[in-house]
Design brief:
about 230 residues, alpha/beta, four-stranded mixed sheet, about 10% strand
Amino acid sequence: MTTGPVPADRDPARLPSLLVDVQRRLEAFYALPAEPPVTDFLIAHDEAAHLPGGGSRTLVSQEGDEVSLAVVLDRSVGEELAQADPRERLDRTNLGAFSTLTEEVSHFLFLMYCARASRSATQLELELQGEVDKYLSAAFLLSVQNEGAVSARLRHLLFRSYRLAEGLSPESAERYRVATSLADRYCGWLEARFLRAARLSDLAREARRFYRLGRREKLEKIADIH
């Protein structure tokens, strides 16, 4: 298998250091091989008008054994994060933008992982993993910034107080709602079983195992949570 980017222009306003930082943290957490920087696949918002979809999105195409990826971030994401770096302080003013950025990095890494493992990935899998990753990434930053404390309100903000993007098809909207509900349940279990008890090594082992499960196995895992 070979991989190659869709031609991309780097946009300094997208905070490339934050993109790569989120990528490397996820790779380390999930024990994934280091991929090329996601910034190499970034297309400036203004240059992506002719591409499918709208807003922030990860695009994939395959021709033979070659997989091409591109990541687009809505202009507002870069603007918000440029004003308030979440690595310095993550709060309600930049949580939304940070979550969007993290989701796109998550999609990028999961697609690369699946391509290298010669396995397919459904849209629901991508959304579910992206939801889990934005929770874990935010929880990590909040833990560092608050002497280990992570409020249960984080899940409420991420999974219950969201607004769907305008223009989504009914199918896409329903898929996002399902993924969000599943992630809320799984992350609530992670929080209760591992985070509150500071069992971080056990958390990493569980999250790595979940990452590598197939779609059916992930759904069965969450369905079995009580």
